[in-house]
Design goal:
Layout (H helix, E strand, L loop, with lengths): L3 H8 L3 E2 L4 E2 L6 E7 L2 E6 L9 H13 L6 E6 L12 H7 L2
Parallel strand pairs: 4-5
Antiparallel strand pairs: 1-2, 3-4
Length: 98
């Protein structure tokens, strides 16, 4: 059975190359739902014009599909609410010097 914690762990390996931090600690992931072997992710990017959006989404999907038991992944890209630096984790803030 797929666990939400497993999905969070794998998403911590999905790095935004421009910032050098993972999508979880950047606060880009708004929601994670696991229903049996199906995973739904609601996430955003730091800006709507992010040139690496497709790459980050594909990396996230590919890594989630490698989690044992996952059959299907749906990632919904949203812009509301807009991302802000307030969503960055305390750990990441320290790394960024914020």
């Amino acid at each position: 059975m797929v666990k939400k914690e497993d999905i969070i762990d794998v998403l911590k390996t999905v790095i935004d190359p421009e910032i050098g931090l993972d999508v979880i600690n950047l606060g880009l992931v708004y929601e994670i739902k696991v229903n049996d072997d199906n995973v739904y992710i609601k996430m955003t990017m730091t800006t709507p014009g992010c040139p690496l959006t497709s790459w980050i989404l594909a990396d996230a999907e590919n890594k989630i599909k490698q989690v044992p038991g996952v059959k299907d992944v749906q990632i919904e890209l949203v812009w509301d609410p807009p991302w802000s630096v307030d969503r960055i984790s305390e750990e990441a803030r320290k790394l960024l010097g914020l």
